[in-house]
Specification:
With 140 residues, the protein is of the alpha+beta class. It is 31% helix and 38% strand.
Length: 140
């Protein structure tokens, strides 16, 4: 799911719950208040803004989910990302999986968020308290 609305984090947990799964892993990425760039003083962040090439992003979400289902015994999976402005402490991304065991859930969830950041055409711009803004290069 790609949406300009706040992400329904509670719904992700409810969606993942299934009798087939004993392990649920849910990653929630939020806008943090302070950005620490290597070798520089931390800067106060007021919001992140996301832009996406929606047709390709949705197709990539579908492909990533299919690949996760092939690699692990995934019972359920969700990949949700917000677009537009995301204030401090609000969720930008939600990735979750349900598998029979915790090790598989952790592995699949970690792979999904890391691969989403590498493959999906979503770009992030950070706005700072001093009024400046900068496009952000993807980091792990």
């Amino acid at each position: 799911m790609l949406t300009g609305d706040p992400l329904p984090v509670g719904e992700a947990s409810a969606f993942l719950a299934t009798p087939e799964a004993g392990g649920l892993a849910l990653f929630i990425g939020t806008t943090r208040r302070w950005t620490d760039e290597e070798g520089a003083q931390p800067r106060e962040t007021t919001q992140l803004s996301y832009e996406a090439y929606e047709p390709m992003a949705v197709a990539e979400f579908t492909g990533l989910a299919a690949e996760a289902f092939e690699r692990w015994p995934v019972a359920r999976c969700c990949l949700w990302h917000r677009t537009g402005e995301v204030p401090v402490a609000e969720a930008s991304v939600v990735v979750g999986v349900a598998t029979p065991h915790r090790a598989e859930a952790f592995a699949a969830c970690r792979w999904l968020i890391d691969t989403l950041k590498e493959r999906v055409p979503i770009w992030k711009r950070e706005t700072f308290a001093d009024g400046t803004a900068a496009w952000v290069r993807p980091r792990g």
